[in-house]
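May I ask you to comment on the folded chain given beneath this request?
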Amino acid sequence: MKVVLRGDSGFCRNELMSWCESNGVDFVFGLARNQRLRRIIGQQMHEATQQWNQTGKPARVFTEFEYSTKKTKKGGWDCQRRVVAKAEHIDGKENPRFVVTSLTSAQWAGQALYEQLYCERGDMENRIDMENRIDMENRIKEQFSLFADRVSTETMRANQMRLYLSAMAYILMSGLRRIGLKATELAQAQVSTIRTKLLKIGAQIRVTVRKVWVSMASSYPWQNLYQQVWGNLRC
């Protein structure tokens, strides 16, 4: 199994990268921009700016180079490493971004590495691909929509129970998104959006001997989607 470690610039530390290189773990980390990096991609930034001036639309130009920080008493990189740069011009201003990686250009071309591998680091759920990349950054954030931050009781055990309930609620919501919302406009929606549009809706409930009747308002704007989800879950 191939492991690829991904993270933002807070993880871009020589100690961590050196450990990855010594233990056969690949990495893709954000690299904080500085004036030296900006000078290196000066030509690409000029090209992106020209494209933006001509079209008025965001422009991206990718490049890559070998890079190393200066060795000082406080640290620095042990060796040169591959850096992929995105020279971007949007809304009348520059927006350069950099990532450092152990992956070669033969494994991942620069643009694909940035857009498909690095930028997706926070949005992988229940997906196993050729490199078994697993990232839960955005999934953890979604827990706050299910009250995972409500840990204000007096005992740790009670707070733990609240987290258990929040985690179970997320599992149910994940199943709803994966099965019920498959091939719908909410197939990739956040938990908060699903709750608002499908669950937190006004309805009249009538219980009879044989059935439970749920009557929703005729003005409910997501009726067709609701029926589609119901059909998906019944299959």
Helices lie at 14-22, 35-40, 42-55, 110-118, 137-142, 156-180, 191-199, 223-234.
